[in-house]
Amino acid sequence: MLFRILHDERSGELSYVLADNDAREAVVVDPRSRDLPVLQALLGERDLRLRWVLRTHQHDRLQTRELDRLRSLGAPVVQGEAREGTHTVADGERLPVGNETLRVITTPGHTAGCLSFVWRDRVFCGGLLAVDACPHQPHPADPAALWDSINLRLFTLPDETLLFAGHEQRARAVSTVLEQRRWHPFFARQTRDAFLARVAALPTHAAEAPGHNTPSA
To answer: Which of 57, 89, 153, 209 yields a CA-CA distance of 20 to 30 A from 80?
Structure first.
């Protein structure tokens, strides 16, 4: 299997490429449209067919052309928010990539329709752990749902499960369930009520308010 991480140093955003080299099929997780030339070159160099474009979450109200650009990759775009031209999935559904599969788990909270994708011992969880660190959204869309997604879905996985985030935090791209359960600044040793109160006190940033049209490339 091929596994690549693409990192945007400006925003701290992370994308992932997985491919079954024998079957010549690939999947990209949380791609950014400005990386399309890099992705297309990588796929072409290895003669890979893109099977899925997986989005753990999206901020298309800020990046209004992002979805259309990602659809130009020619593969189904999977995301939790149903929109024209996207592919909706159910909790527990398995998406084939060559001889491998990725399992969908619904994990709302960062945005209303967040998804996470499980592959082997790894989970691509997007912005779930970036409670106050997302460059596009400084406040979870649904804090109560986020608490449940983290504690009832993510933290019930085996301790050694690797968590690959959509945004680097403190110069890190990957952690484990054990580490986050014990030391995450918002979730470790916190009650649900304490978490909700802390999130409610988070500041908002006018530059990222709804309707602000951040360029997507």
So the answer is: 209
SS3 3: strand
Question: Tell me: domain 2-205, CATH 3.40.1190.20, correct?
Answer: no
Cα 194 from Cα 91, distance rounded (Å)? 28
Per DSSP (E only), the strands in the chain are 2-7, 14-20, 25-29, 49-54, 77-78, 86-87, 94-97, 100-106, 115-119, 122-126, 162-169, 172-176
> From first to last of its 217 residues, what are the pLDDT tens digits of the chain?
899 999 887 777 899 999 999 999 999 999 988 889 999 999 999 999 999 999 998 876 766 688 999 999 999 999 998 888 899 999 999 999 999 999 999 999 998 899 999 999 999 999 899 888 777 777 898 999 999 999 999 999 999 999 999 877 665 789 999 999 999 999 999 999 999 999 999 887 533 433 333 333 2
Q: Rounded distance, CA 41 to CA 31, Å? A: 14
Q: Torsions phi, psi of 148, nearest 5?
A: -65, -40
Distance of alpha carbon 55 from alpha carbon 44, whole angstroms: 22
In 3D space, the residue among 99, 70, 65, 200 whose CA is nearest the CA of residue 146 turns out to be 200
The domain ranges of the chain are 2-205
CA atoms within 13 A on the CB side of 85: 11
